[in-house]
């Protein structure tokens, strides 16, 4: 077999095209037939049994043709339909077919009548197509096939290949048992199980390599020209029960997705993250510098939430890992919960309901108030705080706010110039600051002391922001008449762990398991938003909305290769990149640079034809953190 040349044997049904052609032919030929549904199902079943090697091929063909009741004219419609259903990775790799036309062979147990018109559009030579041929009666009805052709028999592909007596290496790409048989007969160097359209368990185990797309096959054989990196090689790990829409989107993109329902602790994550390219988490999983040390392939982290205090953003930057979150998707849910809790606390609703469940009827107005005309102090007037301000005002609350940054007052909200000022005027105080480390215990005994007597207190931001012992003492003393706490310094990793807190059993205290953003709407919004940001980053290099990378919105790549260079922010790196490009006579089509304190992010679009040595030279520039090429 050896002369250095490579021959490619490619199956047609469910490999070259996404479908089984006879199944599609049945849909056409049985149009209007009284047994259409039933027959189509039978045909599909026979196909599957045959593909798994459990039914004699000739029998399978005979049975299907009898059920098909097809005519020559149906073949025209079939070809039109199949043209639209060529496998996606085949469509984008037309160049491969063109370049290797002499050495590409379609060997199929299907029929030349429809195979040739489809594959010819991909530069496959008609004389390189080996398949059966239909036989028609005078009226054009399909009545049989050429029975002398070995391809209507079991092991027919093997026999055909023997006849071909190909010189050089032979690679077989197919989804079925008959493709695998070629390898078993010793006529192929390797069998690649093609799973872009169907996965047949019994074939997967036997394959030399499972290839979820033609890109993967070309990549491992160093022949990829259509895309820089096969998407199935991008391993995604999604933790903490992210919404199924995210899983669906990332699988649809072609990524290899693993899902885990709970959070992982540092040791577990260090182990799990080794080969992960994209990590998806919510608020629990801590992405520490130590975790990042173990992350050999990580390119992006998606926080399926707003807060990113659980991620060491600086360590991510230093490692060239871009972090994305969903800054708006669950804000409304948090606001609605805060409003509900304010009313519930002002009416002592939870305690009253608990008493009722214990059989105690306590009808009284004591300690119960309307919220109308009361003052609400919002600490942290960001996306949540500002939205709460508008809703609260529409319910008749007088809104005060305090923020460390200059913020525009919405509606009639009144700005406070200090936290003390806000605390001294508010009947209800609610925290909506972010979880930056400086906010640890920002609310403690001193702040509770300044608050009005019998005020209400809410924290739906982060647990470490409040000194829990001080909160407990102030609830017990009656200074705080009610509290709603959704976030805690220590939260259970999963629903199976016990919640332990000093706040348990305190009066008029609503404790909720960090569910501010846990609504179907919010989770679905997040699951639409974050994967798209990550996919955009992987596909184009765009970093818009990244929480740690310099934000760059890039044009789509057309007729160029994109070089993405992430480096430590040092003087002169851009000059060095451009010197390397000039030394290799590279024509720059576009260049974009943005830096922050830690990294520089340079994108250079160049003409497609270039000396590949330049890639090595760019990678070797001192202070390079990460480098990748996109096309
Ligand atoms: N309970 C839950 O399920 C959820 C909790 N959150 C938490 O809520 C936080 C706020 O969310 P967004 O409003 O979207 O964030 P944001 O970033 O838009 O707003 C936070 C605001 O707090 C201000 N701030 C920070 N520290 C402050 C301080 N010490 N004093 C006064 N102002 C301060 C900031 O300047 C900013 O304006 C998130 O960072 C997250 O930790 C967010 C969503 C759901
Ligand atoms: O729902 C979650 O897992 C976290 C919500 C949250 O705290 C956030 O969005 O920052």
From TrEMBL:
This is D-3-phosphoglycerate dehydrogenase. The gene is serA. Pathway: Amino-acid biosynthesis; L-serine biosynthesis; L-serine from 3-phospho-D-glycerate: step 1/3. Pfam families: 2-Hacid_dh, 2-Hacid_dh_C, ACT_AHAS_ss, HAD. GO terms for biological process: L-serine biosynthetic process. Residues 65-92 form a coiled coil. Residues 562-631 form the ACT domain. Catalyzes the reversible oxidation of 3-phospho-D-glycerate to 3-phosphonooxypyruvate, the first step of the phosphorylated L-serine biosynthesis pathway. Also catalyzes the reversible oxidation of 2-hydroxyglutarate to 2-oxoglutarate. The keyword rRNA-binding does not apply. GO terms for molecular function: (S)-2-hydroxyglutarate dehydrogenase activity; NAD binding; phosphoglycerate dehydrogenase activity. Belongs to the D-isomer specific 2-hydroxyacid dehydrogenase family. Gene3D superfamilies: 3.30.70.260, HAD superfamily/HAD-like, NAD(P)-binding Rossmann-like Domain, Phosphoserine phosphatase, domain 2. It comes from Fulvivirga marina. Its EC number is 1.1.1.399, 1.1.1.95. It catalyses: (2R)-3-phosphoglycerate + NAD(+) = 3-phosphooxypyruvate + NADH + H(+); (R)-2-hydroxyglutarate + NAD(+) = 2-oxoglutarate + NADH + H(+). Keywords: Coiled coil, NAD, Oxidoreductase. It comes from the Bacteria.
